[in-house]
Amino acid sequence: MKRKTKSPAPGRSPCICEGAGPALTELLRRLAPPAEARGHFQAARIEFLKGLRALIDARIERRSKPKTRGQAINIE
Prior knowledge:
This protein is mostly helical. The protein is 55% helix and 0% strand.
């Protein structure tokens, strides 16, 4: 048994967004920062991640060192 699907009414978009997709895409394109600013943001992201890596490496280094114990003192 095959079901018949309704075609969209003339002048209506077949998408649930009712044609708002292209308008939203255009709005987001206009709100996006210029290419030069995007480059700075990308560089900042990379530097931030490098900082996190340095923090993690330092934490690993501290955890990897053997714990030092106190000295044994002979009591007479």
